[in-house]
Automatic annotation (TrEMBL), chains A, B:
GO terms for molecular function: aspartate-tRNA ligase activity; ATP binding; RNA binding. The lineage of its organism: Eukaryota, Metazoa, Chordata, Craniata, Vertebrata. Residues 135-160 are annotated as: Disordered. Belongs to the class-II aminoacyl-tRNA synthetase family. Type 2 subfamily. Residues 138-155 have a biased composition (Basic and acidic residues). It is an enzyme of class 6 (ligase). Homodimer. Part of a multisubunit complex that groups tRNA ligases for Arg (RARS1), Asp (DARS1), Gln (QARS1), Ile (IARS1), Leu (LARS1), Lys (KARS1), Met (MARS1) the bifunctional ligase for Glu and Pro (EPRS1) and the auxiliary subunits AIMP1/p43, AIMP2/p38 and EEF1E1/p18. This is Aspartate--tRNA ligase, cytoplasmic. GO terms for biological process: aspartyl-tRNA aminoacylation. Keywords: Aminoacyl-tRNA synthetase, ATP-binding, Cytoplasm, Ligase, Nucleotide-binding, Protein biosynthesis.
Length: 486, 486
């Protein structure tokens, strides 16, 4: 099969006219109808569609196809008769699954709903079919059947995760993957639109940095010409520098790198950070309110604009709809500890939350307040980084917070110390080498407004919103200690 | 000066009540007016403003201040009288420049326009002033004077670029920098909004990759646990995999890494790529039209929504307004070569454009067509990467294109080969080790639609749109072979 032929505005692929002749070049300006546009209103129309062969089943003098385009599919029929020859039916039946075809067909309303397709009220009666991109024979059965179909006809994969990730291109074609990543695109858009409307400025922060912050643990090293550099573990320092530079309210969306040998359902070595930092007027709760309102706008936007995607994912991975309150529930750390103790957990006031305790607290909060999203405020100072602002009223605690979705942490944030002297004192208290963080501390010597912020993990938000159980499902090409491909 | 004190909703910084007493805690819910809101409509009102001391000039019993907030500033006056003591005037005069102050003041309409301020029709008569964030004495004169003011009172820096970049936090406070990066934020937003409206999906591609594409030149190496990895030189492979995975039209905004030892005005080792890839129906010119229309929407959006920023930058760096045509001018490479030859340049048909020739051609195109933006289409096949689709009508050329702003390249793109067999042949022709690009070639074995795209350099677009002359001016924290800080 030839693959190109351009010039003028001719068609770039051969087509096979299935009454026996090759037709080529075809009309270049014929419109292509999208599969999701195939509704009973189009009944009787002769249209062109380009789609993949999802399934194919020959039966006597006819061949039933399911044509798939992204998360939508439609049934199609080639039958021997006035418009199609015996050879054409045979040809259509022999096209490898996952090949891309152009078909000319009449839209017909069906008597009985087609449960297995997204377009349930119509089918296509094919009059011409051309092969737009064929699969070579040896690849078909080996790969595409297992991944795109997984032995089922509903487009949901049943194969194991590593196999799916190894063949990610095919796995991403499933209706579930199409829905997940369309929703992820929506999260980014809602995040940015909400913040832009609040007067935030988008910034671009460097990923190659000269010094590892916070002492150099869990950081990837890069060869940089004749020297070494590091990959940024967070854009925090640069966000703060933008605040010192009077940008007032900033956000950024970009990769974050963690050289952590954690092989869990929720850790990646590279993930996408949705980061916020803002100067506040009088109280760091202004920062919490900005962030929680942004999250609420994301939740509402997903609920209102991405129902199709939520439903599609729910067919393969059923979960309870995501619940949230407005305004967002804010509990103090000590209240959280009290709830855990009441449930039988033994822990100290200044002890950090373990992952099981985080999840348990999530369940207790859900029972008591009926929300899947809440803020835990005023963490013990001892368990937070050196740049965290202490609580001025109780030095045991700090002006810092985590946010949780379905009992798992999606954001960690705080009011930052904006005074070089206090920052130096706190770094010394943590036994941090002052020489290594000199440029960070110096940023605050030229007048810095009080500020705070936080970083949100995009893949976690998508995973937890949809009630999925592995962050690799919401990372298009996940990176972990054991996976660098594709 | 103490830096924090929170609790309840008390104020988090000390203030000095300048009639001699300390007032603290102040009212936390007093509204803060933004400097750009200070217009004659507010005349007579007593308001609070938080801003930086931009300049300060004491003269007898009064002190004139200019208060700056981002790209806006306003004149303010403290004068001995009923509302202010002699000590207060002295105190105000002694506050270090670049400190952040809260002032309570009456807005007064002025008789004569204040040319040196953005708020030209009003001034503030200060009644109270509090220090929100002070500069330590030893830092003031040494740094901030040189950078934020550069010896001038209009907020435009005159110091050299390295000094400015070394002290980027202060340099970013200048009205010019504030305007540049607000406009850059706008470019990203316009890019994404235009594409989202066209049905594109935003994707997130990995930056840590297992194999260096295109043979491994100019790529940064990363230590990855017990093995090595690389930093992605472009998201192209991943964009193409998304097309093979039926996402149809995708874009991404993210860092791109080039280990190229180029020390020029337009090269960075890390820059932000605005990347597009789409399947097309019948002709790769559909791709060019999608991209050029996106650029035109960006140019229009900047012209219509960012005039303040364009004017602000123009005060320090005057340039001709950016001109573009609609639809965008598209020239074939051979036409460009003919224009250059007519202007006396000697070059072969299949020779690549040198940088001086690119600029010359830009000037010739501007003279003839009056546009600062155009597409050069159908590059010689010999000067393009192996994955570029050849022109089916003339094997000397290819279905590839560059786009130029003010005579400098901002995008390189092409129709990509979507057939594994042809791709293999072209790679062999380029003497590329097939083993190294196996996974890339394999991506096309499961049915790929015809597609094309390109990558735009964000910093170059901002630099050339504003008529600036160094890409480091439009990179917030630039990275080049000699610079890794701040």
């Amino acid at each position: 099969m030839c693959v190109w032929a351009e010039g003028g505005r001719r068609y770039m692929v051969f087509e096979v006219f299935l009454k026996g002749t090759l037709f080529f070049p075809c009309e270049p300006d014929r419109g292509l109808v999208r599969v999701h546009e195939l509704t009973p209103e189009k009944a009787g129309q002769l249209i062109w569609v380009r789609a993949r062969i999802h399934t194919s089943r020959a039966k006597g003098k006819q061949c039933f196809l399911v044509l798939r385009q992204q998360q939508f599919n439609v049934q199609a029929l080639v039958a021997v008769g006035e418009r199609a020859s015996k050879q054409m039916v045979k040809f259509a039946a022999n096209i490898n699954k996952e090949s891309i075809v152009d078909v000319e067909a009449v839209v017909k309303k069906v008597e009985q709903t087609i449960e297995s397709c997204s377009q349930q009220d119509v089918e296509l009666h094919i009059e011409r079919v051309g092969l737009s991109s064929a699969l070579s024979d040896h690849t078909t059965d080996k790969q595409t059947d297992r991944h795109a179909h997984g032995g089922r006809t509903d487009g949901r994969a049943t194969v194991n995760q590593d196999t799916r990730l190894d063949n990610r291109v095919i796995d991403l074609r499933t209706t579930t993957s199409q829905a997940i990543f369309r929703l992820q695109s929506g999260v980014c858009q809602l995040f940015r639109d909400t913040l832009t409307n609040k007067g935030f400025v988008e910034i671009q922060t460097p990923k190659i940095i000269s010094a590892a912050s916070e002492g150099g643990a869990n950081v990837f090293t890069v060869s940089y010409f004749k020297t070494s550099a590091y990959l940024a573990q967070s854009p925090q320092l640069y966000k703060q520098m933008c605040i010192c530079a009077d940008f007032d309210k900033v956000f950024c969306v970009g990769p974050v790198f963690r050289a952590e040998d954690s092989n869990t359902h929720r850790h990646l070595t590279e993930f996408v950070g949705l980061d916020i930092e803002l100067a506040f007027n009088y109280h760091y709760h202004e920062v919490i309110e900005s962030i929680t309102d942004t999250m609420v706008q994301i939740f509402k936007g997903l609920r209102d604009k991405f129902q199709t995607e939520i439903q599609t994912v729910g067919k393969q991975y059923p979960s309870e709809p995501f619940k949230f309150l407005e305004p967002t529930l804010r509990l103090e750390y000590s209240e959280g500890v009290a709830m855990l103790r009441e449930a039988g957990v033994e822990m100290g006031d200044e002890e950090d939350l373990s992952t099981p305790n985080e999840k348990l607290l999530g369940r207790l909060v859900k029972e008591k307040y009926d929300t899947d999203f809440y803020v835990l405020d005023k963490y013990p100072l001892a368990v937070r980084p050196f740049y965290t602002m202490p609580d001025p009223n109780d030095k045991k605690y700090s002006n810092s917070y985590d946010m949780f979705m379905r009992g798992e942490e999606i954001l960690s944030g705080a009011q930052r110390i904006h005074d070089a002297q206090l920052l130096t004192e706190r770094a010394m208290h943590h036994n941090i080498d002052l020489e290594k963080i000199k440029s960070y501390i110096d940023s605050f010597r030229y007048g810095a407004p009080p500020h705070g912020g936080g970083g949100i993990g995009l893949e976690r938000v998508c995973m937890l919103y949809l009630g999925l159980h592995n962050v690799r499902q919401t990372s298009m090409f996940p990176r972990d200690p054991k996976r660098l491909t594709p």
